[in-house]
């Protein structure tokens, strides 16, 4: 589907939903937000993938709405999740890079940061998270238990999540030992544990409104998966040379088969969550969202984005603010409400999720956020568009990007303190192959002003493209 761009003064009238209103006495709707880890936009069948089987996620897209120009909050894990949870773009958000804490955890969000779970819990929702948090250990202000979640089950620390067979995970702030696991293999695969916990959460809260956040850790490397799933792909993907472990993480005898199997096993979990909703009669009163935290893995740990065409024709991978690093799949599903088989190219991104879910639940979003609700678009009503979309990432020397209409500027810190701003016309050049900055000085100047104005200094995450070195 070709890209369609609008200015801020024009409205998108995309009929994704059969217009319908919720009666005042109707039960509050449930929300399930599923976030894959490092899943490329084109690693799903519904986005054109031909080697990896994802029948359950494909079914959500067929029965709901698929977005083709949805963007993450950042090109890497922690800052992207911070944007998702708080509705602030990465120039205003608390966490702007992956910064490790010792002995375990990452740089925490602040006590005053209001998350999706905070807002929904205050509105009477039961809240649960199963998967990877990455925004602060339990003894910090960033603990998920201090940010609206009644129940947390999984990894708090992102480094810990690099193994799908860890020796322990957490239930709330208590360690749960996983017998039979040694970090490299074992009997308890965490994707399966998250699935089981999610089904139990739904069962326990079937009589009340709930928000279920499922930040799964698949398919982030290491490549690890139970044998029964691996066997589905062994010998099915042609030559599959063993990965020797020299690019990090652990070796694997059949990395292509292993990676595909990880995605398919996650897809199975998505299917079982939806089946559970249907079995309890909750499917029509539950909004299910599926996305990924950033672009596909940059070919470490046995991952092979070229083999799977993970980023399609987009430039860049995880860690880059080019399209391939921040464009992600996004699917919205609610049978009987969202019109089946709809596709939207509306440019939206992670800051928009919080205000959308608040509007969907019937409560006000926190103030001072950067996102806009796309609930009007889902309801077939006129949808205001963003003036611009903005990203910054303090890693890899410092990167910024801004999209305004058909134009995208990318600013990067170079060696020896130099900085370069590139300009691309996404309508003509979606693969960002031709830098047209020299041909469009007025557009370049306007977008460079955006890049400067949207960045707020953060001493914890200095940005070398703007902040002077100290």
TrEMBL record:
Residues 1-23 form the signal peptide. It comes from the Bacteria. The keyword Lyase does not apply. SUPFAM superfamilies: Alkaline phosphatase-like. GO terms for molecular function: arylsulfatase activity; metal ion binding. Residues 450-470 are annotated as: Disordered. The keyword Metal-binding applies. InterPro entries: Alkaline_phosphatase_core_sf, Sulfatase, Sulfatase_CS, Sulfatase_N. Keywords: Calcium, Hydrolase, Metal-binding, Signal. Residues 29-362 form the Sulfatase N-terminal domain. Coiled coil: none annotated. Belongs to the sulfatase family. This is Arylsulfatase. It comes from Gemmata obscuriglobus. The lineage of its organism: Bacteria, Pseudomonadati, Planctomycetota, Planctomycetia, Gemmatales.
């Amino acid at each position: 589907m070709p890209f369609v761009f609008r200015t801020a003064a024009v409205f998108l009238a995309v009929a994704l939903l059969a217009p319908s209103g919720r009666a005042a006495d109707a039960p509050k709707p449930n929300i399930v937000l599923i976030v894959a880890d490092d899943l490329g936009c084109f690693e799903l069948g519904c986005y054109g993938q031909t080697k990896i089987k994802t029948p359950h996620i494909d079914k959500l897209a067929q029965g709901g709405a698929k977005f083709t120009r949805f963007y993450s909050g950042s090109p890497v894990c922690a800052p992207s999740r911070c944007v998702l949870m708080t509705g602030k773009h990465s120039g205003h958000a608390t966490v702007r890079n992956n910064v490790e804490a010792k002995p375990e955890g990452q740089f925490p969000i602040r006590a005053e940061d209001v998350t999706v779970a905070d807002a929904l819990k205050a509105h009477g929702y039961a809240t649960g998270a199963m998967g990877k948090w990455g925004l602060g250990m339990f003894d910090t202000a960033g603990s998920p238990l201090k940010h609206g979640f009644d129940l947390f089950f999984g990894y708090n620390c992102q480094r810990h999540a690099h193994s799908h067979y860890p020796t322990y995970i957490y239930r709330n702030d208590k360690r749960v030992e996983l017998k039979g696991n040694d970090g490299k293999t074992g009997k308890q695969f965490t994707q399966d544990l998250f699935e089981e916990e999610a089904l139990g959460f739904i069962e326990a809260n079937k009589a009340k409104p709930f928000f279920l956040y499922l930040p799964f850790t698949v398919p982030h490397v290491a490549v690890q998966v139970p044998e029964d799933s691996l066997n589905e792909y062994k010998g099915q993907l042609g030559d599959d040379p063993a990965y020797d472990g020299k690019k990090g993480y652990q070796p694997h005898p059949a990395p292509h088969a292993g990676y595909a199997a990880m995605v398919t096993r996650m897809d199975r979990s998505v299917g079982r969550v939806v089946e559970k909703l249907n079995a309890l009669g909750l499917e029509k009163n539950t909004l299910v969202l599926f996305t990924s935290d950033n672009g596909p893995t940059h070919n470490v740990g046995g991952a092979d984005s070229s083999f799977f065409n993970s980023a399609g024709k987009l430039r860049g991978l995880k860690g880059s603010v080019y399209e391939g690093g921040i464009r992600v799949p996004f699917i919205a599903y609610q049978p009987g409400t969202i019109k089946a088989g709809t596709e939207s190219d509306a440019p939206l991104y992670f800051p928009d999720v919080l205000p959308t879910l608040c509007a969907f639940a019937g409560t006000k979003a926190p103030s001072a956020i950067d996102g806009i609700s796309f609930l009007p678009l889902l309801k077939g009503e006129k949808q205001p568009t963003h003036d611009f979309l903005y990203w910054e990432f303090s890693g890899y020397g410092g990167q910024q990007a801004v999209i305004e209409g058909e134009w995208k500027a990318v600013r990067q810190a170079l060696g020896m303190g130099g900085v370069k701003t590139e300009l691309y016309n996404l309508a003509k050049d979606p693969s960002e192959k031709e830098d047209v900055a020299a041909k469009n000085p007025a557009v370049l100047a306007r977008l460079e002003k955006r890049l400067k104005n949207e960045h707020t200094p953060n001493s914890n995450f200095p940005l070398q493209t703007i902040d002077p070195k100290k």
